[in-house]
């Protein structure tokens, strides 16, 4: 019967999607973890500056992308667990242990998940740069590079080409380097985000790049870097820096 | 648009254009052929790429062959890339409410005659794309289409630069296509690249990942 | 010795409420308030809200204040369900009182703390699938620092020099950004007031759930103050010239 109102069940949706993109690349003795700073819902920009990348310890940085409320809550809880670890053991949790901690924390919410893609970057106990990427329910692996978020599909194949040298053949008698130097990595990160900003509406406004250097590594490769700000608590261990850049705001 | 899979990209260089596609033909996730070409010559310096539903690709290839032949006979001259782009657009818009499920990509060189007494003229790069109902997109840099369109956008935006010579353009479009389709389950299984210059068209079949 | 999880935070396996399955949750707003606007200016924060509480399309209560002072440094403004807003203000007031009488340390919660607390309450309720159906702006000034932030029914939070909820996010936020961005530290109180008044007028012209009576809250070094209701001066002469949609099509 037309006009007859059907009884309708209005269901509350506890999730939303807040756009943005994150990215991390591991070097031999450093890691770069980056994210844009736009937060959006649908076609509205909620803010031009909402950080998605967080320093956890002097050697671990976590990037979080997806549903912003879940992301912030998750980071808060990870930081809390790391503080408890510090109080119990009088040292910072090793990177691979943080990775496993994140996996268990995500899987604990298997049936009401944190709607969040995590990328953890930093320095492993053996001094190597490392990137761990996670799905929302805790599947994870260690990788050399990973993009996630709204522009993952734009950035990841570019990284395959520029970091893993996919579809490229080395000159006769030569091989591809297995780790790129820091300046090259930073250029690739900036290019990735300017490209994503150009072609994806949810990416833009600002870029935050965290650089984690292994213990004893010089600042080699950061000489020409404008406005790097140090966040580490000591200078004789691993060191963390943040660099900010503007992205297009349209 | 996801049924058969496939992707196409076209790029502008210095006095040259390139157009490239993968070779996969699928039936959903199942690959049924790895020699399915999606790019067709229209004139000496003009190519048309069609992605989308394979049956519509075949239908429209024949339709545009017929239409360009009719045009050539009626006008007694070759069709220009820009005229052809509008022919594609109006042909697709005829089916506005029951469209062909394809996204066309056009790449060619367009002749621009010189002013009186200043030599013959020049061949300038021309690319265009359209959606399934014929909304034209005249890009100055590159056009992408198909199931790996978002990936192609990302890589092309990172690799492309203005005024590349034919060899550089070939490398750029090949790398763009291969790295994009390697991240797309519905595209890949080999690729073809056409590089169009004033004097010749170089067509190369690329070896790429077959998984 | 190996404990990394403080005892009082251990997950507990106590039985759940036996009747929890039967509990029904409020899942739609009933009496609602429309947009809240806010901006940063030279000496503090300014918020604006009209005085209407609607019942569907009915303009039900026309003298409701949707701006409330919380503690000595903060004002919150709410759109969405007004009963949920009243519950929130009651909760926050009791938190302020509790803090005062139990701690007796003369410390008062500031805008940052109130926003964080509110965000946790909102996120906690959404996680129970029983949300408080509001979008709330928190504005404050303390120790020479301006604070302005957003929180909604999902627990999503963000800060920005200008904020707007509801229709204001579409209609007023672009105007606010144009008027304020880059001028946060130079705008005078009078200029800020004028910007908000102009935005409230545009909203009254275009938002069918608004009314031409509004209040402005100012929070600066001398604390919060909420104005008496202000009548909007409007002129509808321009409406004559509108052609091409609505009832008038020729």
Automatic annotation (TrEMBL), chain A:
Its main location: cytoplasm. Signal peptide: none annotated. One of its GO terms (biological process) is proteolysis involved in protein catabolic process. One of its GO terms (cellular component) is cytoplasm. PROSITE patterns: PROTEASOME_BETA_1, PROTEASOME_BETA_2. Keywords: Cytoplasm, Nucleus, Proteasome. InterPro entries: Ntn_hydrolases_N, Proteasome_bsu_CS, Proteasome_sua/b, Proteasome_suB-type. It is found in: Cytoplasm; Nucleus. Component of the proteasome, a multicatalytic proteinase complex which is characterized by its ability to cleave peptides with Arg, Phe, Tyr, Leu, and Glu adjacent to the leaving group at neutral or slightly basic pH. The proteasome has an ATP-dependent proteolytic activity. Belongs to the peptidase T1B family. PANTHER family: METALLOPROTEASE TLDD, PROTEASOME SUBUNIT BETA TYPE-1. The 26S proteasome consists of a 20S proteasome core and two 19S regulatory subunits. The 20S proteasome core is composed of 28 subunits that are arranged in four stacked rings, resulting in a barrel-shaped structure. The two end rings are each formed by seven alpha subunits, and the two central rings are each formed by seven beta subunits. The catalytic chamber with the active sites is on the inside of the barrel. This is Proteasome subunit beta. It comes from Hericium alpestre.
UniProtKB/TrEMBL annotation, chain B:
The keyword Cytoplasm applies. Its main location: cytoplasm. Keywords: Cytoplasm, Nucleus, Proteasome. GO terms for biological process: proteasome-mediated ubiquitin-dependent protein catabolic process. Signal peptide: none annotated. It comes from the Eukaryota. It is found in: Cytoplasm; Nucleus. SUPFAM superfamilies: N-terminal nucleophile aminohydrolases (Ntn hydrolases) (SSF56235). CDD domains: proteasome_beta_type_3. Pfam families: Proteasome. Component of the proteasome complex. Component of the proteasome, a multicatalytic proteinase complex which is characterized by its ability to cleave peptides with Arg, Phe, Tyr, Leu, and Glu adjacent to the leaving group at neutral or slightly basic pH. The proteasome has an ATP-dependent proteolytic activity. Belongs to the peptidase T1B family. This is Proteasome subunit beta. It comes from Hericium alpestre.
TrEMBL record, chain C:
Its main location: cytoplasm. The keyword S-adenosyl-L-methionine does not apply. InterPro entries: Ntn_hydrolases_N, Proteasome_beta4, Proteasome_bsu_CS, Proteasome_sua/b, Proteasome_suB-type. One of its GO terms (cellular component) is nucleus. One of its GO terms (biological process) is proteolysis involved in protein catabolic process. Belongs to the peptidase T1B family. This is Proteasome subunit beta.
